[in-house]
Design brief:
- Helix content is about 45%, strand content about 15%.
- The chain is of the alpha+beta class.
- It starts with a helix and ends with a helix.
- Bound molecules: zinc ion (ZN) (2 copies).
């Protein structure tokens, strides 16, 4: 995504109305690597501009996507995510299936290609690789939970043995 000032000029040139609400959304997205949902942008924007609506956030995101300044992503987390980094050649994603956290993966996967049989009918524009797995924080949380559960089971067993 371009700088906030450049975005304002681009939107004006396209005849979009420039409002404090939209500028606020531009600022939130600038250098944002969290792959936010429309709702999380809305929550952050409301802290700065109280009069913003979720509808304005969606409309602005659609406009940004249509001029190629944000990349809408469907990563299987239940809600569309928006990425101001629109490089689809060397920029891919790793998604935690527990908490939905999305991380950027910077690598080129030139080996990924359509099977020959499909090639005449389909023109590939971009290849997006999505790695699905569990992030380190969620791995840690599940280890802690397992340890706690096994301690409790242990205690319960000991109690039963005493009673028995
Ligand atoms: Zn996670
Ligand atoms: Zn990304």
């Amino acid at each position: 995504m371009r700088t906030v000032d450049e975005m304002v000029d681009l939107f004006k040139a396209r005849g979009y109305r420039m409002t404090p609400q939209r500028q606020c959304i531009f600022r939130i997205l600038q250098d944002n690597t969290s792959h936010p949902t429309a709702e999380s942008i809305y929550r952050a924007a409301r802290k700065q501009v109280e009069t913003i609506s979720l509808q304005t956030v969606y409309r602005t995101l659609n406009e940004l996507a249509s001029v190629g300044e944000v990349l809408p992503l469907e990563l299987g987390t239940g809600m569309a995510r928006f990425d101001p980094n629109t490089d689809q050649e060397t920029h891919h994603h790793a998604v935690c299936s527990v908490c939905g956290k999305v991380r950027d993966v910077f690598a080129e996967y030139q080996g990924v290609a359509l099977p020959d049989a499909l090639r005449p009918d389909f023109d590939v524009v971009a290849v997006q690789v999505v790695f699905k797995g569990v992030c380190s924080a969620c791995q840690e949380a599940s280890r802690t939970l397992r340890a706690m559960t096994s301690r409790q089971e242990h205690k319960a067993k000991a109690k039963m043995e005493v009673v028995g």
